[in-house]
Amino acid sequence: MSAESNTNESSGLGLGTFLGVFTPTTLTILGVIMYLRVGWVVGNAGLIGTLLIVLLANSITFISTLSLSALSTNMRVGVGGAYYLISRSMGLEIGGALGIPLYLSQTLSLTLYAFGLAESMRIIWPGAPVQLLAGIIVIAVVLIAARSTVLALKMQLPIMAFIGLSLLSLFFGVEFNGSQVEQLGPWTDVGFWGVFAVFFPAVTGILAGLGLSGDLEDPSSSIPRGSVAAVFIGLVVYMAVPFALAHGADAETLRADPLIWTQLAWVGFLVLPGLWGAIFSSAIGSILTAPRTLQALAQDGLVPSWLGRVSDNGEPMLALRISGLVALVAVMLGDLNVVAGVVTMFFLTTYGMLNLASALEDLVKDPSYRPRIRTPWWVSLLGAFGCFVAMAAINPLAFVVAIIVEFIIWYAISRRAIRAAWGDLRSGLWFAMARFAMLRLRTARQDPRNWRPHILVFTADLTRNLPMVRMACRFSQDHGIVTVNTMKVGDLESHDDVSELLERNRALLSADGVLAFCEVTAVHSLIGGIVTITQSHGFAGLESNVVMLGFPHTSSGVQRLFGLVRRLDRLEKCSIIVKPGITPPVPDPNERSPEILVWWKGREHNGDLMLLLAHLLSVSDGWQRAHIVLRSIVDSTEEAEALSQSHAQMLTDTRIEAKVDIIIRAPEETPQTIIRKQSAAAAMVFFGMAIVPEEKEAAAAAQMETMLEGMPTALVVRNAGPFRGRLV
Predict the structure, then answer these.
(1) CATH number of the domain located at residue range(s) 449-550 in this protein
(2) Which residues, at least 6 apart from 37, have a Cβ–Cβ distance to it below 8 Å?
């Protein structure tokens, strides 16, 4: 499934910075908290304490604004606001995990503001039916937004005037003869973070203008300019209002009277239009941004596409009606206190993720990341940290609930395997991490305790050789690197199917659940190709150190195998030759304790690698019930006792569980006869391989074919690494 990138072009409304970003953002910041809660904050924190809280809260918001400015100036922003920025930077999964709750939060915010406006009516109408009024307000706001987005935004202009008049009335009504509250405290039993939690939602309105990104004429310019200006205005006002309130009333009065503004203002009645207008404008901002977030989610395939349908004038009318219906249904819930806490958390996780996306973009430094406003990564990271600290301070339970909900949505989207039609920073992030790790590996001290098999598997036909690749993955334990290379003999130009074969092999591995890299290489000869590829494979401490091959089907092929292993030995590359046998590569679950047999001679230092591979196999899926047998052949009782003690001590030192079995050879028996007889019951057998001179290759090949004929699955191992004899 693929998600098409939604359009980056303007919808045609052509909103400018002032009407499209500055006005809705400013009115959301200068909202109900300013009128009904700042006095309480001053009464608890004192004047200086309040100013510290204002500075801290605005610092988090200002950093978040810088982060979203950096992101928005690095791309042509389309419809969807914060969801658009996050999904294009962090990917669809994370974007959807935040975008879906963000949409619901924007919709439920309309309900919350409607309740707030209805409750404030009790100032002049004590018996007002709050729930009924809230429903009427929701319907009225939706109808205004449905009539025209521009009309709804222009209605905010007189509201801004009302807020300005209420502020002037407050400052003209207060006599600045000295503060009547303590400079710090008294805090009562609330504490710093308790007061901070009450105030912080006042400055979290920066998404109001961002949410209209698809309707802006020049979003990359308007979003940063309008948002930064609004945050600056908010900072100035929130620094000034506490100063006026502290000079107008004592701490106890400020704590007890949420409508203290009406008592202190020069014309008290002027406060009410500002209060009601602030709440109403916030409601309008919610119903304008929520449908556009839903529209963006629909265009990206995260919700049904019909939800993003637009009318002839380019407005998402269906999404608007659905959002209004959701808000109206929420009115029937009555008490929304719990919902309000979770809504705040969803907004704050969005702010935090915007900061994190900006930080990662700056850290990764993809060549495509060229924002006109660049925010240092550590500043954005500090903003993200501040958001998450604020969430924990405001409501720890709601914080946990929000994170759990977002994780569930992320998991559900990840399972759907939606493919985005755009790139995001994740590839750059993995590259940056890989580069950092490889630079450290380049200079890291290599030691036998850190050795792990990085296996280069050569296959002629992956479909036929898939069991061998599975075995390599069992040896790597998903901690080493397995690479599957399919060689095509001839010039590259003579093989037009290389890309198709590569994709087919990748699909085979993916369908089988095998974690391995794929390569298809054109070579002039098989032996020369294996040597060349092995020499150049990997870098910076991640070179392939083990080559795995299938056992040849012809005697001449077995003979050439000795020459190849000799060359790989000079390159210090270990070799594993896999000879399928009469036993399957995975033991039958009904079989009792299958045996992994390691034949140990001790002459070529192959034993430590064989024992390590046997141990890795025994702890892999399907082999946990298997037991390792370490078996050797000697000619005398004295040799048997000495070797038995040596093996027992080695197994104790290496902490590998294995049974030691020393066989004393009778004079009439040959080692080959004993090996064939004692290996018959094993599920898998490990043999060591010696380096054979070229003139003896034919005899050695005949001997190996005879010994392995009719055997269980056998692995012939040559240890050629720099840590020979020290791997266990």
Answers:
(1) 3.40.50.620
(2) 198, 199, 202, 258
